[in-house]
Every structure is written in C-alpha cells, then in structure tokens.
Design goal:
This protein is α/β, with parallel strands linked by helices. It contains eight helices and five strands; from the N terminus they run αααααβααβββαβ. A five-stranded mixed β-sheet has the order 2-1-3-4-5, with helices on one face. It is extended, with a radius of gyration of 27 Å.
C-alpha cells in the first residue's frame, strides 16, 4: 500500500512535467557581502571601551546640533556619526553610543542608521581606504583590470587590509563619476580615468604618503572630451545677439 506521501508524489508528478522550465535572466555569480551586519564584541569594540569627542569636534557637534530644532535632534545622527568616524577612523559601538547620548535617543536608533548606510565603517580600516567602483560603466572601461592591479600590488583581496594597516580595499557601487570611469575613491578623494599604469603610480604615491593630484589621471582637466572640444569652440556671443536693432 502506498503511503500518503507517495500518493501525493504520484499525483503531482504529471503536473510538474508539464510546467515550463524557469530560467534566470542573468548568469553572473552571486556576490556575497563581506560585511557582518550583526555586532560582535571585540577587545576594541564593545560597550566598555570609552569614546569622547575631542574638544574641537565637540564644538563642531554643537554647531551641527544647532541646525535642528530641540525636538528633532535625532536628525543630526548621520553627520554626528560621520564626525565620530573621522575622529576615530571608523564607527565603533562606543561612537554610536556617544551619538545616541548626544541626541537623546535609544542607542538602537543609532545602530539602525549605522548598519544601514555603507558610508559608516563598523570595522577598523586602513589609513588609505580604497573604494573601487565596479558598476557597469566602470567595468566597461576596465575596472576589472584596475581591481587585479590593486590586489596584485598590495597583496590583498577585496575586504582585506594590508598587514601594516595602511590600505583597505573594498568594491563599491556607482561612485557617480561614470564620465571619468574607471574611478577609485581614496578616503574623500577621487582618482579617475585610471589605467593599470596610473593605478600603480597612485598606489606608489600613497605608500610614500605623498598623494598625487586627485582627479583625472589621463591629462584631462575635468570631464571634457578626451579628443578635444566638439562644441563651444569659439568665443560666446555677447548680449543682444540676433536681436533686432530697433528693440
């Protein structure tokens, strides 16, 4: 006698055979995040570690808070987290707790913000935080080769930090500089129009703590056409151009 499970299997088998096979619309590999979004206490990141804003940053924090009505101080959470990260170098649990106390909200409200936005580094990063854009425009312009160049030169993979703590490498989504792709953000600065050769030059300058001039590394001034201007090549016309003289 067939069991209930066997009867069900025999009943649905003909139906399953008639269903069309489903295909995904992409063949790209699934990219898993290298970040942990659940806090784990460590020796340098737990509630017992003390953090206080420096005297200078405390004054800056007061200026930030002054922009918000007293009942909406929580609106300052993001700029205050950024201020704390710039002081410490990353956004630790003590930084979040200090911000929560300053804006008078439960710490969880600050944790929610810090874990949502990728601009907050909840783990220590190197002195030079390398953020390579690998979204479609940059990829079409060679970001894959730039990534291989960085990994080979520094001896690290995405999500890792060099042994001397000087460089951390991550991949990011659109950096908003598609017209100058491929682009590498180093802390707050953009290095654009990169090639493997210019990437090596940028890394060499950072190793010597003498960063090259930021911006395009191709000789362009900003984002003008590489082959020269194709429009606006003459002096602009003055006031009254093509206006009747009797008006």
């Amino acid at each position: 006698m067939l069991s209930g499970r066997s009867l069900l299997k025999h009943a649905v088998a003909p139906v399953l055979r008639t269903l069309p096979a489903k295909r995904t619309i992409t063949s790209s590999r699934i990219a898993l995040s290298d970040k942990l979004f659940v806090h784990r206490d460590t020796a340098d990141n737990n509630a017992n570690v003390k953090f206080e804003f420096s005297k200078e940053n405390l004054e800056r924090a007061k200026e930030i808070l002054a922009k918000y009505p007293p009942q909406y101080k929580k609106g300052a959470i993001m700029p205050l987290l950024d201020l704390g990260q710039r002081q410490l170098g990353w956004t630790s649990l003590p930084v979040m707790n200090a911000v929560a106390k300053m804006v008078e909200v439960p710490p969880m409200r600050v944790y929610e913000v810090a874990t949502f936005y990728t601009m907050y580094n909840r783990e220590p990063v190197g002195r030079y935080f390398l953020q390579l854009c690998t979204t479609t425009p940059c990829q079409l312009c060679g970001s894959t080769e730039i990534l291989k160049t960085i990994e080979s030169d520094l001896g690290i993979k995405v999500g890792e930090t060099t042994d001397d703590g000087k460089f951390t490498l991550v991949e990011v989504e659109c950096a908003g500089a598609c017209v100058n792709a491929p682009v590498l953000a180093v802390n707050d600065d953009y290095y654009e129009d990169l090639t493997p050769e210019t990437t090596i030059a940028v890394l060499k300058s950072l190793k010597a703590d003498k960063p090259l001039k930021v911006g395009p590394q191709s000789g362009r001034h900003t984002c003008e056409p590489k082959g020269g201007l194709t429009s606006l090549t003459t002096e602009p016309t003055g006031p009254g151009f093509r206006i009747r003289s009797d008006l």
